[in-house]
Specification:
Layout (H helix, E strand, L loop, with lengths): L5 H15 L7 H8 L4 H13 L4 H8 L4 H4 L1 H17 L8
Length: 98
């Protein structure tokens, strides 16, 4: 098992290592975001990826323990924003990296 706080330390240390790895292509802003994130960010990542993979919103709601579907809908907005950024980059726009 893990001692209290162990998983948090592992995740935050890993995120900082990823942010520091110059071989990984990302902006300075993205690196700073990684440096300041912790385990709660994994919930957001899971929710956004699940929405992107067409998992029904009520299922995501139950898995994340949200009382309201409105709370879960933030992942739909995050996925929509990411999709717009990716398609913009595909068509040569540079808004995706800002």
């Amino acid at each position: 098992g893990f001692a209290p706080g162990s998983l948090w330390r592992i995740v935050t240390k890993t995120l900082k290592a990823v942010a520091a790895d110059e071989r990984i292509e990302m902006t300075n802003q993205e690196r700073e975001i990684l440096r300041s994130r912790a385990t709660h960010a994994l919930r957001h990542t899971f929710g956004t990826v699940a929405v992107g993979n067409d998992v029904p919103l009520d299922v995501i709601q139950k898995l994340l323990g949200h009382a309201s579907l409105d709370t879960t809908s933030i992942y739909v907005r995050a996925e929509r924003k990411r999709s717009i950024a990716e398609i913009s980059r595909f068509f040569g726009g540079d808004k995706a990296r800002k």
